[in-house]
Amino acid sequence: MKIILIILSTLFLGGCLGMPGNVSPVKNFQLDRYLGKWYEIARLDHSFERGLQQVTAEYTLRDDGGVSVKNRGFSAEKNSWSEAIGKAYFVNEPDEAYLKVSFFGPFYGSYVIFELDKNYEYAFVSGPDLSYLWLLSRQKKVDPAVMSNFINKSQELGFDTKELLLVEHD
């Protein structure tokens, strides 16, 4: 019975570190340029961000070479801020934008940057499957051409962009 639980746990945890079949992480990634504050512009809905606006993600270097992650968003319904602190590590090489991120102890999920502006001004990010998608920007708004590119590329990769939520920022 213990062996079955170990195998199931391994399959469950390993499944969270995959990526959608057509998604490829950015190569020649430079973590030091990615660190700092990002604004969430659009996302597919999921329970851990449901109802949040003014969502930001802040990335800083950890002493162990990983990345500290601080996600923050405002719930108008609760009239309060919500914050989640996590950590991320490269899955493969540090020049490949494919990381695993955890907000809950030993449980990790994929964080795959599949498009990144050459100046590190916006990023298209996927999770382990087609139900996780984000557009992040250094600014609270993006040029309409960036949004159009995000939607088109995401549709080509199989994401359901009709379900995208646009995130408001004050």
> What gap, in angstroms, lies between the N and C termini?
53 Å
Count the DSSP helices: 3
Structural class: alpha+beta
Spans of at least 5 consecutive residues whose pLDDT stays below 50 are 1-15
Largest sheet: 8 strands, antiparallel, barrel
Mean model confidence by pLDDT: 91
Order of adjacent strands in the largest pleated sheet:
1-2-3-4-5-6-7-8
Total number of β-strand segments?
Answer: 9
Based on CA atoms alone, the radius of gyration comes out at 16 Å
What sequence of helices (H) and strands (E) makes up the elements? HHEEEEEEEEHE
Q: Indicate the percent of residues in helices.
A: 10-25%
**Shape category:** globular
Explained architecture:
- This protein has three helices and nine strands; from the N terminus they run ααββββββββαβ.
- By secondary structure, the protein is an alpha+beta fold.
- A hairpin with a 4-residue loop joins β3 and β4.
Record keyword descriptors for this entry.
170 residues, alpha+beta, 8-stranded antiparallel beta barrel, 19% helix, 41% strand, globular
